[in-house]
Specification:
Blueprint lengths: L1 H18 L5 H22 L11 H15 L4 H21 L12 H14 L13 H28 L6 H4 L20
Helix pairs in contact: 1-3, 2-3, 3-4, 3-6, 4-6, 5-6
């Protein structure tokens, strides 16, 4: 299901990109991290009794999809997608550099610690091998950009878990994300009289 959703995002992104500017990768990620921090503050402030979503990396996927579509619209899409792969891998390395090996002994359910250990190993990039080997150039550069996004998603998921239990500071304090500019509200259409 997730693959279908991402395919629709990439396919429909071209039309969207022509109607409005798609965000560049890092500003998109900055907004995604800010969204998570707002949700975390809300959950902590309201002391929600329902389960808080700590594993939402759909925004990371979307930022990667926007990056690929933006590359597809350039004169040099392969070079652009290679640069996007490097940008995502660089961000993944910055996130991982601030993750603890294990969560501190805090009062959290045991599954937080178990989940964090598994996701942390994925965030370090443990892989079964080169998933994109043997493809032609268009498919290979696309695949490599998506694989970089998968690695980044695992790192962000590990950061979200660690952030949720208070084991790491906000991303803006460690420097791998910036505060996004305020979003200008969309004006409501003028009412029409019938």
């Amino acid at each position: 299901m997730k693959s279908l959703w991402l395919a629709l995002v990439v396919w429909g992104g071209g039309a969207l990109a022509q109607e409005q500017e798609l965000p560049a990768f890092q500003p998109c990620m900055d907004r995604e991290i800010a969204r998570y921090e707002r949700a975390l503050r809300r959950a902590q402030h309201d002391q929600l009794t329902q389960e808080f979503e700590i594993g939402g990396t759909t925004g990371v996927d979307l930022c990667g999809a926007y990056g690929i579509v933006r590359c597809d619209l350039t004169e040099t899409p392969y070079a652009c997608q290679r640069a996007l792969r490097v940008e995502q891998d660089d961000l993944q390395a910055k996130v991982v550099a601030h993750l603890p090996e294990t969560l501190p002994a805090v009062e959290t359910p045991e599954w937080h610690h178990d989940l964090y250990g598994t996701v942390h190993a994925l965030a370090l990039g443990h892989s079964a091998g080169p998933d994109c080997a043997g493809d032609d150039e268009p498919r290979q550069v696309w695949c490599e950009a998506w694989e970089a996004n998968r690695r980044l998603s695992s790192a962000i998921l590990a950061w979200q878990i660690a952030r949720f239990v208070g084991a790491v500071p906000p991303a803006t304090e460690t420097g791998w994300a910036q505060h996004p500019p305020p979003t200008r509200p969309i004006a409501r259409p003028e009412p029409t009289s019938d």
